[in-house]
Amino acid sequence: MVEPIRIGGSPLVVLRAPARADRPAFIEATVAPGRGFMLLQAKLALPSGHVVDVLEAPAPNEAAEALNGGEADFAGNAAFAFGGALLAPFANRIRGRPLASSREIETLIDGMPARLPRNWGGRAPGAETYAMHGLILMAPVTFIQTTPGSVVGRLSADSFAGRWPGRADMSFAWSLAGGALRLRVDAISRGPDDLPIGLGWHPYFRIPSGQRGQARLRVPAARRVAVNNYDEVLPTGELLDLTDTPHDFRSRGGKALGDIYLDDCFTDLKAVRGVATAELFDPEAGLVLGVAARAPPVRAIQIYAPPDKAFVVIEPQFNLADPYGAQWPPGQETGMLRLPPGSSARYDVRVTARRLEQQ
Q1: Is residue 91 a contact partner of residue 302, using CB atoms and an 8 Å limit?
Q2: Which residues contact 82 (CB under 8 A, 6 or more apart)?
Q3: Quick one: which H or E segment has residue 65?
Q4: What is the pLDDT of residues 334-347, one digit of tens each?
Q5: Is 24 within 8 Å of 11 (Cβ atoms)?
Q6: Comparing C-alpha atoms, which of 222, 356, 201 is closest to residue 292?
Q7: Looking at the 3D structure of the chain, how many domains does it have?
Q8: Residue 42: domain span
Q9: Nearest to 45 by CA among 59, 66, 28
C-alpha cells in the first residue's frame, strides 16, 4: 500500500467537483493542512476536456521535500515560494530593529511591543531584513473534509507562540462549488486585549499559454505604494496616483504585461457591490481568471510578476506593506484591523475562470 504524502505531519487533502460542459470549472484542489492550510494546486477543466494546472507549483512529492524543513524553509518561507500560502496575522512586510543575538526583529504592533522572525529581505549586501507574510506558514491546522468538494480547519493560534499582541482563534474553509474555487478565513479575538489582524493569500497563478508578454492584467486600483527599490521593496509612505502611468491596470480588458517588472502593492480599490476583482487574461489560451475579494476589509492587492516567469502572484490582503511603519503620515489607513474581545473578521476570496470570448 502506498503511503500518503504528508506535509507538516498531516496528509494532503484533495477536493473534487464535477466538470461542466458549458464553461471552465475548477474540478480539483489540493490543500496542505500541515502548513497553515495552504493550497498546493488547483485544476481547471475546460469544456474541451483539457485540464489546466492553475498554480505554479511542483508535484506533491517535490513540494513535500521543500516544505518539510531545511534552511530555505526558515519560519515557513518555502510555503510562499509556490502554490498559495495563507497569511496571518499580517500580510506583506513588517519592519523593526534587528536583534544581533537572533534572527528576529523588535517592533511595535499597534503600539505594543513584539518580536517577529526576521525571515526575508533584500538580497544585496547590507540590505534590510524584516518579517514577512505572517506567523502561520508552518502551523499545523486541525481539519475535517466535510464533503468531496470542501474542507474546513481550525487553529487555536492564541498569541502566535508569544510573538503577537492579543489572542486569536482561526477557522478556514476551502471549497469547490458552481465551477469556482473559494477560500474563507475567519479570525476571532479571544481577549482580554484587542487583537490586531491582517489577512491575505499568496497564490502563484500560472499563465496557461506560458507566454507572459501577451498576458493581460486588470487590477481595480487607483494608487500604488511607492517603494525604495525592488530589492528591499520597502514602502516610502507615499501613495502614487496611477493615472497615465505604466502601472495603471484598470482598463476593462486588462493591460498587457509586456516586460514590466511588478512587485507592487496596489490600493484604493474600486469595489462593485462590496467586491474588488483582479483578472488575469491569457488571449493565447483563450482564458480569463478572476480573483474576487470582499473589499473592505481587503484594501490592497500585491502583485508579483517577474518578466522572466510565466506566472502572476495576485495577493488580496487587508493591509498595506509595513502597516505600522513610521513612514506613514498620521491618519493614513493601512488596513490592519483591531478586533475587540469576542469580535471577528472574515477574509473571503472567490476564484473563477471563463473563456475569453465570454467578456
Answers
A1: yes
A2: 55, 56, 57, 58, 63, 66, 204
A3: helix 60-67
A4: 999 999 999 999 99
A5: no
A6: 201
A7: 1
A8: 6-358
A9: 28
Q: Which amino acid, 28?
A: E
Give the number of other CB atoms < 10 A from CB of residue 261: 12
**Tell me: the pLDDT tens digits for 22-77?**
999 999 999 999 999 999 999 999 999 999 999 999 999 999 999 976 778 999 99
CATH code for position 308: 2.70.98.10
Nearest to 354 by CA among 75, 52, 80, 39: 52
Residue type for 10, please? S
Would residue 253 count as lying in a domain? yes
Within a domain: 240: yes
Asked whether residue 300 is domain-assigned, the answer is yes
Residue 1 lies in a domain: no
Given the C-alpha cell 475535517, which residue does it identify?
Answer: 144
Identity (one letter) of the amino acid at 152?
V
Closest CA to 187 of 115, 120, 135: 135
**SS3 state of residue 278:** strand
Q: pLDDT, tens digit, for every residue of 141-189?
A: 999 999 999 999 999 999 999 999 999 999 999 999 999 999 999 999 9
